[in-house]
Structure prediction request, 227 residues.
Amino acid sequence: KAGVTQTPRYLIKTRGQQVTLSCSPISGHRSVSWYQQTPGQGLQFLFEYFSETQRNKGNFPGRFSGRQFSNSRSEMNVSTLELGDSALYLCASSYGTGGNTEAFFGQGTRLTVV
Amino acid sequence: AQSVTQLGSHVSVSEGALVLLRCNYSSSVPPYLFWYVQYPNQGLQLLLKYTTGATLVKGINGFEAEFKKSETSFHLTKPSAHMSDAAEYFCAVTLIGGFKTIFGAGTRLFVKA
Prediction:
């Protein structure tokens, strides 16, 4: 069974640009969550999707957005990139809906903003 | 609001020594509790979880954790550290029925030969 796949693995962007990151969950998983990981802030929750609906959102500015498609694949978009957006972005998928099931993480997309 | 506190951003132990990584949570009701491990340039991998039932939970690689409601703690232990245990460990909580998992800041474990 294939794991969670995130593309691209590495990305370098310039301030002011926008970026789209992709996440393909494990087959059969309908919940996808996104996290931003930085050395100073640790893992920060961005948002969670289930069946194409955003069920929860973290405390990030509106420049951060996401969506989920009917096949459960998810994308997140960051517009008007800032230097502080440089981070490892992790996607996690899970099967359950009540929070008690394991989240399977992808290897992440490392975004560098210059 | 729920939160997770991991005491000690860095822990160093000798190979063969006891590993103890501390985690306390703040929640109005007992949540689901998880420990994840992250190796360099990798995503997170589940070590163990507590949902209901027995409060002592055994996970992979010889790790275990005990849920103590009275202390709002979920400390991770391993009797004998191995060099391969060197990694970053994250404690996480999810409210029952919730759709958002909160992670602690992480504890980096160093294992000395």
Residues 86 and 112 of chain A are 5 Å apart (CA to CA). The mean pLDDT of chain A is 92. Chain A touches chain B through 25 residues (CB under 8 Å). The radius of gyration of chain A is 13 Å.
